[in-house]
Model the fold of this input.
Amino acid sequence: MTSTKPKILVTRRLPATIEARMATLFETDVNEADDALSGADIVFGLAGKDVLVSTITDRIDASLIAQLPASVRLIAQFGNGVDNIDLEAAWAAGITVTNTPSVLTEDTADMAMALMLALPRRLVEGTQILLRDRAWAGWSPTSMLGHRLRGKALGIVGMGRIGTAVAQRAKAFGLSIHYYSRDRRPPAVEAPLDATYWDDLDAMLAEVDIVSLHTPLTRGTNGILSEQRLAAMKPGAYVVNVSRPELIEETALIERLEAGHLAGAALDVFDNRFGINPRLLELAQDNRVVLTGHMASATLEARVEMGEAVIVNIRTFMDGHQPPHRLLPESLGPRLSRGA
Ligand code: 8YV
Done:
């Protein structure tokens, strides 16, 4: 007898508990090799399947969508951002797309805060010196001086769930909160944070000591921290990015750091298409850049909850309901502007 369970292709390994649950509920095909699949592999793997469980490492563009078997009705992204998926092409093909928002908000905000502290308080450098010397020369009043976070101005670009969670943490660390966002947040959000709303990103960038990016990557936000905007930032400022590399014109950022205009950048995401830029690695060697490899939401707890959200989305969809995290046209987000 043939199975009536939904047939799904999962492109990457997921936490064991999630894979086990999926194997119970669905006819599940997991990419055991856990490497990034090519478009051809995805199309091939989806033959006769109902659902694609994708991640950021899958490029699901219009040409791939055009080749999908007609049986595929749902793309259930394991992740919050969906910039790897051509949403309009999917919708035009009658395919529903879901994501896993909310469950990674707090962990991602924690990481943004850790990166915000790392450079001014020389955390990575402090450890590296001990590892290099295998000894500690001891305390002195002028050794390893960093800079105080309290009293500095933080400029958040994109005050959605994650941006707001970062603001809450930063407020507790004594930073003043400034933000630029598609829409001004209601007083109930702004008041406890004492947050200042800027409708002009350029004006905010000229005033703040730290810029932290929390907008999704859309057509409107690609390159939002452009060469001109980086040039207009306050001398000695820091940049934090836990969102997507494409938000920053990376070469221009490197030039600003090399020139000493900006004091540092803490990047959980960076352009890795041709490997890490050697100039960025040089700056990291010189402790003016901190690099981590897309770890902001990498907690076991978040990954399990992301997996559970994927399961809920698939179950409700296959039962004939609108899945709770289906993407709607507003997620194309055209209103944040790249500007000059
Ligand atoms: C995820 C992320 O790890 O969810 C997102 O948008 O950027 C990451 O933190 C990744 O996207 C999983 O697909």
